[in-house]
Design a protein that fits this description.
By secondary structure, the protein is of the alpha/beta class. 32% of the residues lie in helices and 14% in strands.
Length: 197
């Protein structure tokens, strides 16, 4: 989008503020991984940066896992303003079931909205990075993955709003429209909002 996406304004608030409001009180700590910490000090949260800026999302996950102080990390992207609490709470409730708890909307992993067991995943991600991998799911074959499939998502987030992310100006307009509709008590457009990831 030609700028720091997390700070793009959506209805008068930065995208990341919408995300932070959705995860508020779900965990014991909240971390922001950023390579521009000065821009995020106003949020009053712990900030951590990648040792190698620009190395991609897998490196960002490695940074978050290494910095976290608790056994599990709920990873959410900064551009998903409509995260649904029932889905987030369900992922957390499955923490003891596996090393990665990940939704699969439409049969595809959504690794940027998933729960990770810190120690096991940190080792696996480290090995993947050392092998030159950059894909977020490159280490999934070496850990125990619990998939949250469409049948369960139909109950937790039937419109798949959690998976709507903002990549361009059109997405931002759609998000503005949805927020305006929800604030006025209307429902989103038929079929809800979905986005190819």
């Amino acid at each position: 989008m030609g700028q720091d996406k997390a700070l793009v304004q959506l209805s008068g608030h930065a995208l990341i503020e919408h995300v932070l409001a959705r995860v508020n009180r779900l965990g014991d700590e909240t971390l922001i991984t950023t390579n521009n910490p000065a821009r995020y000090t106003r949020f009053g949260l712990r900030l951590v940066s990648d040792p190698i800026p620009g190395a991609g999302a897998l490196q960002g996950l490695h940074t978050a896992l290494g910095a976290a102080q608790h056994a599990h990390v709920l990873l959410v992207a900064c551009d998903m303003p409509f995260l649904q609490p029932p889905l987030l709470e369900y992922l957390i409730s499955l923490a003891a079931s596996g090393d990665v708890i990940v939704p699969m909307p439409g049969g595809r992993y959504e690794p940027l909205l998933a729960l990770y067991q810190r120690e096991i995943c940190l080792q696996a991600v480290d090995q993947a990075l050392r092998a030159g991998e950059r894909r977020m799911i490159s280490f999934y074959s070496s850990v125990q993955v619990v998939e949250v499939t469409d049948s369960r998502l139909d109950e937790l987030d039937p419109q798949r709003l959690s998976f709507f992310n903002i990549n361009n100006a059109d997405d931002l307009k759609t998000a503005e429209f949805y927020l305006a509709a929800s604030l006025s008590g209307q429902h989103p457009p038929s079929g809800g909002i979905t986005n190819e990831i």
